[in-house]
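As the next step, I wrote out a protein sequence along with its fold in token form, included below for the reader:
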Amino acid sequence: MLYDLIVIGGGPAGLFGAIYAAKRGLKVAILEKKNRMGKKILTAGAGKCNLTHTGEPKDFLKHFGDNGKFLKSSLYNYKPEDLKTFFAENNLPLVLVEESGKYFPETFSSVDVVTLLYSVCKDSNIDIIENTKVEKLSPMGDDNFSVSTEKGSLQAKNVLLATGGMSYPATGSEGDGYPIAKELGHSLIPPKPALTPVFVRDYPFSDLSGISFKSATLKLFRDNKKVGETTGDLLFTHKNLSGPLILDFSRFIHKGDIININYLGMDREQLNRLFLEKSADQGKIGLKRFLNELNLPERFVKKLMILLDIRDDKKLSEINKKERNNILTSLCEMPFEITKLGDYNTAMVTTGGISIRDINPKTMESKLIKGLYFAGEVTDIDGDTGGYNIQAACSMGVLAAKSIKL
């Protein structure tokens, strides 16, 4: 059978590309190498499936690093509102978690999302071909493609490559699309894990797992030069630093970098001034009480005093200059040396991939090969945590489907 479109990869980009191509009357097949499509979707939002985020498309573009502008056509063509409408029309409305700005299915179940997408595919007469790995993609002289798999070959007028990146390889994301695209002449930006926790030398907070800080500030240094800064929520785990602050910025962090963390909403000079004023006016109050009044977690305060070797009953007036400076450094610019980033088993997405220079952002079609389209994490697009990546994948898939010439 000659398909109008073969989609390689059954993740969000491939599924939405297939569904919207079928809506146009195209004969569509999805090739998925695992025994079930949507396995990575099942991991989204810790199984609750964070699908998108509040904000207009212009706001989304700010959450994809240097390559955000590439997504303008995709996100304006298929907006977050369109994704919400899709799920509402298929009897699984999305609900907003106000504090986070994230949208989840009303059942808070990734399984329900995948089940729905299967149902829509079947109702759309899409051929779902699972347990089938694509080994080679070959353009043919009559503007068709031969898609070679371990089980034989299929032919298509158009192909959408949506194989994902390399994060969570157990779900099928193992970089399969990279060699296929590279063999066809496309450039590859070296992939690496992103949206991942970072590991630091001599991590001191293993016993404070679960403690978080709202609006902490991270400054990134490389070769003694400041190369970046960001603000967000920080989380201590039992073995590393995590939370949106770390995850979203991990795409910029390298092994050997130094990060400084400010746990407060004030800089070193402001804290020093407050410390001296408080010491002069109320010198008899304890250091522990003073730190607790800064809205720092009590367990963190206790740990900090142990690390700085300061008695927990010491009064402000008894703190000498060296001790005060150590406190200021620890709270406003605590340094950590990066020893490694989380690997692909812990990274939520992959940064790098097929170069967007080889892709037309208005159609998602290859600039090198007519009829070949790309969507999702297989491209050099990665966004912040919070539903941005799934929305981008869906939007790219839909734009590709709408751009196919009948």
